[in-house]
Amino acid sequence: MQLDATMLARIQFGLTVGFHYLFPPLSIGLGLVMVVTEGAYLVTRNKMYEIAARYWTKIFAVTFAMGVATGIVMEFQFGTNWSSYSRFVGDVFGSALAAEGIFAFFLESGFLAVLVFGWDRVSPKTHFFSTLMVFLGSVFSAVWIVVANSWQQTPAGFHLVRDATGAQRAEITDFWAMVFNPSSMHRLTHVLIGAIILGAFFVMSITAYYILRGRHIGFAKKSFTVALIIAVIASLGQLVSGHGHSRQVGNTQPAKLAAFEGLFKTTQGGTPIHIIGWPDEKTETVKMAVTIPGMLSFLMYNNFSTPVAGLDKVKPADRPPVLLPFLTYHVMAGLGMAFIGLSLFALLFLWRGTLFETRWLLWIFVFAVAAPYVANQLGWMAAEIGRQPWSVYGLLRTSDSVSVVVKAQEILTSIILFSVIYTLLFIVWICILNDKIQTGPQEITSAPFAPVQTEKAEGKGM
User: Fold this and answer.
1) CA distance 449 to 50
2) What domain range is 146 assigned to?
3) Is 448 a member of any domain?
4) CA-CA distance, 238 to 241, in Å (whole number)?
5) Which residue in 84, 112, 190, 212 has the most C-beta neighbors within 10 A?
6) What is the rounded CA–CA span in Å between residue 218 and residue 120?
7) What is the pTM of this model?
8) Which has more confidence, 445 or 173?
């Protein structure tokens, strides 16, 4: 069997990006939890909030380090496996990544040491400011990466020029038009909310485990409550964000939306939405389909009669695959609805005062952390596979983006080596994480960085 260099390069990029993306969303989500708990401590002087802020900072530091280490590899891939693509987008990506370095890395590197080591060395407000800056740095890092990726989906603010070899490349003519391209803000909102949901469920998973085991109860209840409120707000916000993002995709990348919805043929009148099903690309039908008549038209155009364009409106050579985008998109959307239901259900138990005694529900939260991880990964898979056959939508095909001098066998070898290294890194991360979870938060025995309440006085706080 002959190896396909383009497909292997895509697999390698998917492997490295997918592994890297285990960590930045968690860093962003944990960063928000740290800001909220430390801010609550400054307002209430409740010791449990300080303990929570210190504990989640330790978890954040480990995750942040893994994110930095795994992110470096992606930049090298652009020059090795995707040299044609790199030449085409170099001006665009160079601007976005330079902005990331200025606005994100400077913030993170400047305040990270204060965040991790400055608890008893700086004033409370100074430390809180450092926490806020590190969180904003992680957000700004996401901003510029999403901007660069969104430009691939909906290019704007550029013109095409030819270099000395006669090859075309994109050159920025309007930096802000590039930044605020038609999909960037929709995608950025969706990505950040997904990261916040992951961070909230991660915190609820660990603290639910503590409560079930009867350990660190005060800390666990405070952290779980904070994370649950964040999860409720974020999951409801994601519903709104997802709707807006899907409409944007329908307007700017109609072939991708058609693949998401398994819409092979344009209907006469209103277009139904598939709740579940299995697309068959040979027969161009969705098998075992459960549909709601006219609902896709309503979601796109606010009426039940305007048809949504199907893949029959797209040239066969420009059509994306359907099965994977359909499945990844629908599972992601289904998990999003599950986050809303589960978090609201838990909020009801919290309001009734029975949440922390409802052991079966806490056990669900212990394992539910896997769901937002899956949803985040599937969301990116749907977006990237649905963009095919383009690496830059409408401008540069994926088949024309790969390096011509890198052989398929060489890429396969690097995939195997990367897989081994990433497996070892993942094991190390899990072992460190497990050690910190088993150790748990530490009681503050040294002089705290600000006056705190004692356990006896905790009931008078918030």
Assistant:
1) 9
2) 15-252+317-460
3) yes
4) 5
5) 190
6) 22
7) 0.91
8) 173
